[in-house]
Design a protein that fits this description.
Layout lengths: L2 E5 L2 E3 L5 E8 L7 E7 L6 E6 L5 E3 L7 E6 L4 E6 L8 E9 L2 E4 L3 E5 L2
Length: 115
Amino acid sequence: QGQLVESGGGTVQPGGSLRLSCAASGSISSIYFMAWYRQAPGKERELVARIGNRGNTNYLDSVKGRFAISRDYAKNTGYLQMDSLKPEDTALYSCNAGDSRGIYWGQGTQVTVSS
């Protein structure tokens, strides 16, 4: 079975940076897309960023200019670089990816932005 494992979350002060990683393993290959979602307590899950197979990207309006999604095809890994973090970015961030076999989700990594 395929598996996505996130890492890189933690606690950072406002204005700080974090880099999240999403490593795909097992049967996952030829990934069509990778995406990051987040869910804060009491709020619905929202799409933060997505990158397609041709490198095309789209972002949640509130993170444009601050976050950057990327992929390393050789390592089958995706990244989310988060700069100028704000308290409202605090949430559980989850990786999502799809290949010809199906859609996969990671367990999530917590990001807390607090002074």
